[in-house]
Amino acid sequence: MARRITFQQAINEALAQEMERDETVVIFGEDVAGGMGAPGEDDAWGGVLGVTKGLYAKFPGRVIDTPISESAYVGAAAGAAASGLRPVAELMFVDFMGVCLDQIFNQAAKFRYMFGGKAVTPMVIRTMFGAGIRAASQHSQALYPIFTHIPGLKVVVPATPYDAKGLLIQSIRDEDPVIFLEHKMLYAMEGDVPEEPYAIPFGEAEVVREGSDVTVVAIGRMVHLAAQAAAELDGAGIGCEIIDPRTTSPLDTETILESVEHTGRLVVVDEANPRCGMAADIVAMVSQEAFGNLKAAPRMVTPPHTPVPFSPVLEDAYVPGPDAIAEAIRATAGAATRA
Amino acid sequence: MSVTAPPRVGDLTKEQLLEAYRAMRTIREFEERLHREFATGEIPGFVHLYAGEEAIAAGICAHLRPDDYVASTHRGHGHAIAKGCDVKAMMAEIYGKQTGLCHGKGGSMHIADLDKGMLGANGIVGGGPPLVCGVGLTAKVKQTDQVAISFTGDGGSNQGTFLESLNLAAAWHLPCVFVVENNGYAESTSSNFHQSGIDVAKRGDGFGLPGVVVDGFDFFAVHEVAGAAIARARSGGGPTLIECKVNRYYGHFEGDQQTYRGPHEVEDLRAKRDCLDAFARRVQEMGMLDAVDLAAIDRDVAALIEEAVVAAKAAPNPTVADVLTDVYVAY
Questions:
Q1: pLDDT by residue (tens digit) across A89-113?
Q2: Would you please indicate which residues of A are annotated as catalytic (active-site) residues?
Q3: Does domain B2-319 have CATH number 3.40.50.970?
Q4: Do A285 and B123 touch (CB under 8 A)?
Q5: Domain residues of chain B, as ranges?
Q6: Which domains does chain A possess?
Q7: Which residues are CB-contacts of A49 (< 8 A; sequence separation ≥ 6)?
């Protein structure tokens, strides 16, 4: 039965249900219990923002704090996965990938291929991303295109509580390493989420909203900002079809191409930096596969190619907002149909 | 930190001694043959030879069960052989053939067989120690008494991953043993320079785990130290750091001109520090094995390596379609 819970609660529930179902599922990361070895509560924090709160008591020995040593414990996740566990390692902020990337892309991502199909690496790295809380340049990035670039990884960017739960369950059950990205601005968002466990398959985009004039592909938090822009444009007689890919690897190209086939116009909204990002990737894919269907040049709505700034004024200018999205959609919709 | 007592043949049985000699001889023959075959240009890519260091792989792996794990280094052939990987499939892998241990997808630097507990050679220096922490965690969570061995060189022991892993293994009290094969060179850079010549084993103190130095040319010394460390790990006593002082007979990779070596360094090593010669002398002096036993193994191994090379050369290449298998490749 569905009831309204937050994005954060949906993640906690997915972890709890999978740990209940499968005793090889273990969680570790910085402060995931949040007090081990201290004189006070062993699970004082339950994650830096409380996402894993309550799991330590329910699953003794399977929720484990780590030293601040991302290379060691992310690599340990790969080794644990290759030897029979299903670890969910928490990388507190995706920005910290810089100190452990080797263990992700040279080790975990490549085992199955390099070892001739003889290894599986069923691990999940849960990590927080995105701008909006004035966390500045090293705690605010949207780095999922970097993971998407790496063969052997699967990359998940849920936009709703419902998707967060179903996609996290699928991530834990998947046999490949999965990077699961949680936008910090969505943690408090409420939505209808069934109580029972369910898995959402990877590579199946969600058509969030139907429309016949412009296809808008948006990722993560951008889905909601694109929806605001689309609602505003309804009044102007521009019908937007919003597609949330939900996973950037695998990417549901079919749903995107089908939509472009009937709209002929494409806007991609991506919180990642523009160079070699998802927006560039999707625009390139559509341009190659559906050039004949395009009535106008596709557009990308992204932050500028700068680090994420700190000052609220600057950060608000950096993140694409509904106005910038609406403007791009209008420009695309209004562009003359090419001969 | 302690230096070990003079080694004994101890309680090793004749069968165990034969097995140890066979492992060391197989590694030596495998590597010497690869050295010759590589020179013909027929082997693709890089190979990093383990000759000279055989006593370490054999001395450590003699204590391991099939369900224990090792994570290896660039110089991984010896660990793979000692852990029980199929020698012919290894040779075929190094030739890039379909019949290889990884079906030609890995090569020398990624040779692996999870079924044998061999978590792979590793093309990244210091790539293995964190993986071993994970295996240790698996053993701990599943309450098995498996152990996990991390092999690292002196070069790898300067990586953050190695030091972080010592700390993580100590903090989580994992059944892991970290073996540093200090062969004196990180590629071409001397450990006298890159570690100021200070024992890596001393780093154990800083992480609250025992650190032991052992002569890596001496099978019996390695075997004894490893036995204690592995028994300790298996019984829940936590991790140990073992530094094996050794040297290699070849360069960092095949083709390395080794002009960083001293005059006659390798000739002297081969003459005075040969773990196989030392082993053979020792077991014969003790009356445990005789020359006939050893010669029989030498013959078997020579035949096995010859067969492996002939089979590898004749084996089919992977098909082009194999590029797209064993990984998610749809867009």
A1: 999 999 999 999 999 999 999 999 9
A2: 139
A3: yes
A4: no
A5: 2-319
A6: 2-194 (3.40.50.970), 206-334 (3.40.50.920)
A7: A8, A128, A184, A187
